[in-house]
Structures are given as C-alpha cells and as structure tokens.
Write a structure and sequence with these properties.
The structure holds two protein chains of two kinds. Chain A is built from one helix and nine strands; from the N terminus they run βββββββββα. Chain A is mostly beta strands. Chain A has one domain: Roll (Archaeosine Trna-guanine Transglycosylase, Chain: A, domain 4). The radius of gyration of chain A is 14 Å and the shape is globular. The mean pLDDT of chain A is about 95. Chain B is an alpha/beta fold. Chain B has two domains: about 140 residues, Rossmann fold (3-Layer(aba) Sandwich), CATH 3.40.50; about 230 residues. In chain B, about 40% of the residues lie in helices and about 15% in strands. In chain B, the strands form three sheets. Chain B has a seven-stranded parallel β-sheet, sandwiched between helices. In chain B, strands 4-3-5-6 form a four-stranded parallel β-sheet, with helices on both faces. A three-stranded antiparallel β-sheet of chain B has the order 2-1-7. In chain B, strand 5, helix 3 and strand 6 form a beta-alpha-beta unit. The chains are: A mainly beta, B alpha/beta.
Chain lengths: ~100, ~375
C-alpha cells in the first residue's frame, strides 16, 4: 500500500494527506526514520495537512523543513492544520501597516 | 534528440514561425483582428493599453510589445497603431528591427480609416507569411533555448509532485546548456532566503531580497491580510494555508542550480543557467513578461488545472494532482500525480517532462496551442493618466 501521508522533511511537524482521510483513522507514518502512530482527530481532505505532534499556540508550523506560518491556537497531534488555526507571518497589511 | 528550429537573421533560433500583428494601442485592436483574419496563421496581439501612460509604465508597455515582436518565435511582425497614441508603433517597430527580421508599421489615421488600414496591413502581412512559409527548420542547440517556468491554480500537490518533477527537468535543461527563468516574485516571499543562499554572488542574492521586499510592501500598502489574494481561495481549498507554504513549493520548479541573474519584468536575461525575473503572481502577466524577455517555451505547473496559453510560445501543463489529470484532461499535457500514488518518482516524471520539451521545441503542439489559447496581459506599474 502506498503512503497516505507525505512528510517532506524530517524537521516537519505537519504532513500532507495524499488521499482523503476520515476522522478516527489510525495513521502510521515514518518521520526521520521513526514510525509514529496516531489517531486522526479531524477529517483531512486530499492535499490538506495534519499535525504530526502537538503544536502549542503561537508556534512555528514546519513543512519542507521551513516555517510556513504560526499557530494561533493549540493544535493537537492528528488535527487538521489549515487557515482556521494557522496564520501567515508575511504580507500582513492588516496588522503591520503603518 | 536533435533540436530543430528556425534560424533568425540575428543568429538566434526560434521554435515557432509566427507572423505577429501587434496593436500599439487599444484603439487599434479591432483593426489588428481584421488584418490577422485575412492572413491564415497570422496572430493578433491585442491589449487595453498604449495611451495616457507615462515614464516607466509607458516604457514597460512598449518593452513588452517590442519584446514579443523581437522574440525568435516570431518570423515577421507588423505593428498597427491609431496614430495619436502615447506608445507610437514606430517605437515598437524600431525595437523589433534590431533583430534584423522583417517588421513594418502602419497607423489607421495615416491609412485613411479602418478598411484602408486593413487592406494595407493584410497586404504587408501576406507578404510576410509567404516569406516565413518557405523557411525550414534546422539544427539548434539547448544553449539557444530559454525556458520560462510558471505555476497557477496551485494546490498542495504542486509543491509535492509537479514542481519537484519540473525542477528535475530544469536541472537537465541547464545541464544541457539552456536557460531557465523562475518568476512570480510574490510567490518567492517566504522562500527568498533559500534562493539568496543559492545565488552566484552576494549582489544577486540581495537582488532577490529587494524584489520580494518590494512585492510584499506593495501588497501590505493595501492594508489587508495578503491571504485571499495569495494564496487564492482556490489555493486554500486545495490545502495551501499561507503564502510561505505556496512559495516554498513554487521554487522547486526551478531545480537546484545556482542563480546567475535577477532581471526586471520583460527584460532579456544576459546569463544562461537559472535566472530570476521580477514578475507578478498573476499567471498571464508573468508568462507575458518572460516571453517578452525572449522565452521560447513555458512549463506551467497546476494543481487544479487551467487552460492558459501564450500567443507566440507553447505552454506545457503539468499537474501533480491525479484527480485533475482526469477531470481537466483537456488541458493537461503531463500527469505528475503518479508521484503521490507511489508509482513514479520526481526523477522519472522529470525525465518525461524534459523529453516533452524536446518534442515541443521540434513542433509538437501543446494543449494550449491546439485550443488557440492566446492569453496576453501587460503588467502595469503606473496610473492611467
């Protein structure tokens, strides 16, 4: 069976679903040569991201080994990571405009 | 595979042999369409600009129109103006004449109205078409080819599959001696540090920081969260959360070589290898800028699928989304979605993309060409006066 999640870099705390995944699914995924297993707390549509570990509020979200944004609330392992809990740090004319 | 193209009088090589009828101003658009309709194969280039423009904005519009005529994919060009506009047809024709190809210009007012301008224009264009029709393809080299890279209608599969595969093909093009342009400055925001590290000199790296800062500040001046404009609603539906995530996925399509130059919008690269052009994230404005800068062909990665083409350059669509490869099959040239299904690698699909480049250079028609997609948009940088 091919992988259901894709992890781009060993530093990443999120992975991308390469098939649509349902809430309650038990996922096994290899991160930095270690296999971790967890339950999906949300439905993860194809192409969307899931937290590989607990990420506290105001922490960096890492994909490709790089910062793709900051959490704006606590995110639990297995939860959907997207615009409802992650903000961009760039191009924020709404908060940084002088 | 031996590449074959059309040798131009200035020594450059084209991969298509188009007759281009260029409107210098919005007022000449209908006349340009009517002239092109008289000459089978002639391509009309129309747009809403060319008058009441000033300074760098006027110059950029003229540079794009001149760059399209000068592009080696164009055999001969006719520039049509109204007569009283800011961007005079002579200015554009002079730029094109530097390539020593056949170019002429007329104005509607000088010809004495629409019908007389159409008659005169069709006569000139028909002569050009007759000359171009007898030109044969001859051997050309990868070192003469400029490949533009673009992504649009992205989703997360772009950064996971289509762009990495395309990046492998970009590395092969550069290894063969060719030039690859990475563009869409807004979609480098959040990834600029990785590109700066890979720049040939510190000054080139600084150039990348300068253009991304300028693009980001331009967006911030609007006082909004960039999200919605970048990523777009479609990007977000496809799983892209932030501009940083989109950018980090975008830059994969340029491959892994060092960056040799940063050029302005619609300016021709002077270096081979990997070059960055400062263009907007708007697909058609970006592709227009790169083709005006001399790009011969365009690779366009897409998550959700798009029909976009270019009037004078073949555009090759690659999707990383296996669903899109089926639902938008009309518009997709290469399916990189197998990478996510585990049945192909970015290298195997990258090799396939490179082979496709060679076939398209030699005349194979892309989906966008078969549908006659002639999307053209000039990036404006000043107010209409």
């Amino acid at each position: 069976m091919s992988a259901r999640l894709m992890v781009m870099n060993k530093k990443d705390n999120v992975a991308t679903a390469v098939v649509g995944l349902v809430q309650g699914d038990i996922i096994e995924v290899k991160v930095a040569d270690k296999t971790i297993s967890f339950e999906l707390l949300d439905k993860i549509p194809f192409g969307h991201k899931v937290a590989l570990k607990d990420i506290a509020a105001n922490s960096e979200v890492l994909k490709y080994g790089q910062v793709i944004g900051m959490t704006n609330k606590d995110v639990k392992q297995g939860q959907h990571v997207h615009v409802h809990n992650t903000d961009s740090k760039r191009g924020r004319g709404d908060i940084h405009n002088e | 595979m031996q590449l074959k193209g059309y040798r131009r009088p200035d020594g450059k090589a084209g991969i298509r042999n188009h007759i281009l009828i260029i409107s210098s101003v919005v007022c000449a658009n209908r006349t340009v369409e009517m002239i092109a309709a008289q000459v089978p194969g002639a391509i009309p280039l129309t747009h809403p600009h060319g008058c009441a423009q000033l300074g760098i904005d006027k110059n950029q519009t003229a540079r794009v129109l001149g760059g399209f005529g000068a592009n080696p994919n164009v055999a001969c060009a006719l520039v049509v103006g109204l007569g009283c506009e800011t961007v005079q047809p002579d200015i554009i024709a002079e730029v094109i004449a530097k390539t020593k190809k056949t170019v002429d210009s007329i104005t509607i007012q000088q010809c004495g109205g629409t019908l007389k301008a159409v008659a005169r224009g069709a006569e000139l264009a028909a002569q050009m078409a007759a000359t171009a029709a007898v030109q044969e393809r001859e051997e050309i080299a990868w070192s003469e080819i400029v490949l533009a890279t673009e992504c649009g209608g992205s989703d997360t599969t772009s950064g996971l599959a289509a762009n990495p595969a395309c990046g492998h093909a970009s590395d092969l093009v550069i290894e063969a001696g060719g030039t690859v342009i990475l563009s869409e400055t807004m979609e480098l925001v959040g990834a600029e540090h990785l590109l700066a590290e890979r720049s040939k000199t510190k000054a080139i790296g600084q150039g990348i920081y300068d253009i991304t800062q300028q693009a980001e500040q331009g967006a911030m001046a609007l006082g909004e969260d960039i999200r919605g404009g970048q990523p777009t609603p479609g990007n977000i539906a496809g799983g892209l959360t932030t501009i940083e995530e989109k950018s980090l996925g975008c830059i994969y399509k340029a491959g892994n070589t060092i960056i040799n130059e940063v050029v302005d919008y619609a300016c021709a690269p002077t270096q081979k290898g990997l070059v960055v052009m400062d263009t907007p994230g708007h697909d058609v404005e970006s592709v227009t800028g790169m083709v005006a800068g001399g790009a011969h062909l365009v690779v366009f990665t897409t998550g959700q699928g798009t029909p976009t083409g270019c009037p004078i350059a073949p555009v090759i669509k690659v999707t990383g989304n296996f669903n899109t490869a089926l639902t938008m099959a009309d518009n997709i040239d290469i399916n990189a979605g197998e990478i996510l299904q585990g049945t192909a690698t970015k290298e195997s699909i990258g090799n396939k993309i490179y082979e496709e480049y060679q076939q398209v250079i030699n005349g194979k028609q892309t989906k966008a060409e078969l549908f006659g997609q002639r999307d053209f948009a000039i990036n404006r940088i000043g107010p209409t006066l």
